């Protein structure tokens, strides 16, 4: 889906974009100025300068520059008046024609030859550069083995004269430069061919990670996990996919409203205005209550939703925390229809009809953390149908960490199409199966504790085609043999801290579920 916020695109003409300040993470929530995932099959909104460009299919839509004989091939989008912003895109070099060639993401371009760019060089470097015609000033860079056919996530952040560059979530360069104070974004190749996807421009960004830069573009298969990032025991610490795409802060600093009835709750969570809703006591209801964008829904001590659930359909920037759900008659939490940036944290789920947390229909950038599921069978579905590839491929990127699957039967999660899906530091107890990867999905399963789990990991499930699983550093107690393989798993773009798997049981049972944090 292509998204363009017309008000914010007009910012260069005098409209003002307002950033909401996150109370949970201390970061600024980024208002989206522009985004394009090319799934509509066209490149409207982009202007070409050289090269041979077309929208192609690479799992999902992507924008390809196919002529590696073109000296300078560029596409530009956005507003020449944009000043302080961040731009992020996935970039896949396809071929380089000669040495010292360039595939790059650009920011603050005020002409076809003046810009800042974050470049992947086939000389084994990633560099943040200030380009003024034929003059190239290197602001900073690192050695990086750039592999053709591999996706990299590039991000440039501009703030005044400070320019920062990130590769796969890790800062590789930062410096000051006064070449350009404003300008458009760009996609760039020089004597190279490449594909570009998931372009997002935000007016500000979350605090960037500062872990060491990557040493290879290859997907993870072995080796030690990252050791930097927010501490996993931090009750307010959002980690994972919901930190991407500008981050997630829900209602931010909006004043809170306390609700005690189904009618008041239904009204408070509707619409797109920023709001913080507090649930007090037990609310009995039925069906699905629709949650709009820019909402934080918090449970006061003992808060319970009995008989119904929440549905997010096309919603963005939603946080749901510290609530006990029981006896829902559909799903407890249903995230669908390209909902983006959702955090489901420290909730409890028991004795419902269908899924506890189901995510589907092209939704993306979701973190599910520190929840407990008990006395229930179907836990967490990711992707609802084998026949929904066109909407789901390139999306359904979800992080599941520090959840307690306490005697729950299946789907922890059951994954279709999403890649990479990240499952780490969860505690599994007395389950039919743990994680299933199907329909070409890619799942990294690491640092988990499986106890009395019949089939900890499955490559393929039921009639669904195989997906890929990389499993590493897990503990298996009185459990079956894990399966792995089935293809490749893409790299994880964000920083995170991995607990030792042998400690996960005690950590998770002490901290997962509603009533374990103060919000």
TrEMBL record:
Q: Where is this region: Disordered?
A: 200-255
Q: Which GO terms describe its molecular function?
A: hydrolase activity; pectate lyase activity
Composition skew (Low complexity), residue ranges: 204-226
Query: Record's GO cellular component, any one?
Result: extracellular region
Q: Where is the Pectate lyase domain?
A: 252-456
> Which positions make up the signal peptide?
1-30
Q: Is rRNA-binding included in the keywords of this UniProt record?
A: no
A Pfam family that this protein carries is 3keto-disac_hyd
Provide the alphabetized UniProt keywords.
Carbohydrate metabolism, Lyase, Polysaccharide degradation, Secreted, Signal
Main localization of the protein?
A: secreted
Under SUPFAM superfamilies, the record lists: Concanavalin A-like lectins/glucanases, Pectin lyase-like
Output the GO biological process annotations, alphabetical, semicolon-separated: polysaccharide catabolic process
Q: Where in the cell is it found?
A: Secreted
> What family does this belong to?
Belongs to the polysaccharide lyase 1 family.
Q: Which PANTHER family match?
A: PECTATE LYASE 18-RELATED, PECTATE LYASE 21-RELATED
Could you tell me what this protein is called?
Pectate lyase domain-containing protein
Question: Organism source for this protein?
Answer: Phytohabitans suffuscus
């Amino acid at each position: 889906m292509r998204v363009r916020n017309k008000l914010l695109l007009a910012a260069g003409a005098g409209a003002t974009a307002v950033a909401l300040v996150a109370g949970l993470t201390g970061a600024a929530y980024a208002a989206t100025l522009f985004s394009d995932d090319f799934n509509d099959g066209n490149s409207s909104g982009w202007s070409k300068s050289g090269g041979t460009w077309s929208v192609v299919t690479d799992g999902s839509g992507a924008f390809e520059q196919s002529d590696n004989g073109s000296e300078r091939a560029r596409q530009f989008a956005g507003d020449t008046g944009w000043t302080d912003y961040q731009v992020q895109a996935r970039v896949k070099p396809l071929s380089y024609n000669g040495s010292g060639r360039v595939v790059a993401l650009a920011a603050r371009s005020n002409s076809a030859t003046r810009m800042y760019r974050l470049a992947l060089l086939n000389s084994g470097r990633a560099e943040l550069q200030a380009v003024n015609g034929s003059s190239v000033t290197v602001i900073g860079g690192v050695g990086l083995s750039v592999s053709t056919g591999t996706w990299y996530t590039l991000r440039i952040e501009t703030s005044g004269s400070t320019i920062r560059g990130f590769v796969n979530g890790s800062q590789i360069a930062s410096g000051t430069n006064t070449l350009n104070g404003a300008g458009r974004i760009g996609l760039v190749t020089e004597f190279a061919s490449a594909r570009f996807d998931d372009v997002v421009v935000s007016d500000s960004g979350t605090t960037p990670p500062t872990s060491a830069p990557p040493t290879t573009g290859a997907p993870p298969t072995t080796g030690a996990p990252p050791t930097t990032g927010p501490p996993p025991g931090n009750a307010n610490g959002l980690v994972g996919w919901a930190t991407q795409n500008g981050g997630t802060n829900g209602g931010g600093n909006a004043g809170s409203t306390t609700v005690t009835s189904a009618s008041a709750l239904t009204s408070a969570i509707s619409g797109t205005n920023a709001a913080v809703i507090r649930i007090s006591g037990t609310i009995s209801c039925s069906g699905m209550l629709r949650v709009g964008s820019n909402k934080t829904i918090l449970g006061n001590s003992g808060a319970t939703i009995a008989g119904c659930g929440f549905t997010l359909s096309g919603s963005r920037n939603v946080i749901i925390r510290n609530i006990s759900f029981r006896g829902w008659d559909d799903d407890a939490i249903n995230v669908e229809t390209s909902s983006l940036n959702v955090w489901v944290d420290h909730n409890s789920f028991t004795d419902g009809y269908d899924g506890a947390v189901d995510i589907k229909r092209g939704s993306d950038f979701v973190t599910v953390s520190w929840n407990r599921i008990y006395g229930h069978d179907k836990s967490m579905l990711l992707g609802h149908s084998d026949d929904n590839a066109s909407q789901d491929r390139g999306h359904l990127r979800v992080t599941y960490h520090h959840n307690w699957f306490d005697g729950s039967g299946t789907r922890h999660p059951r994954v279709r199409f999403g890649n990479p899906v990240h499952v780490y530091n969860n505690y599994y107890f007395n389950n039919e199966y743990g994680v299933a990867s199907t329909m070409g999905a890619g799942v990294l399963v690491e640092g988990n504790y499986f106890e009395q789990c019949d089939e900890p990991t499955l490559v393929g499930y039921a009639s669904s085609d195989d997906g890929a699983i990389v499993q590493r550093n897990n503990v298996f107690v009185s459990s079956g043999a894990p399966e792995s393989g089935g293809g490749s798993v893409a790299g994880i773009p964000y920083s995170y801290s991995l607990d030792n798997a042998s400690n996960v049981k005690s950590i998770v049972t002490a901290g997962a579920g509603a009533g374990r944090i103060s919000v």
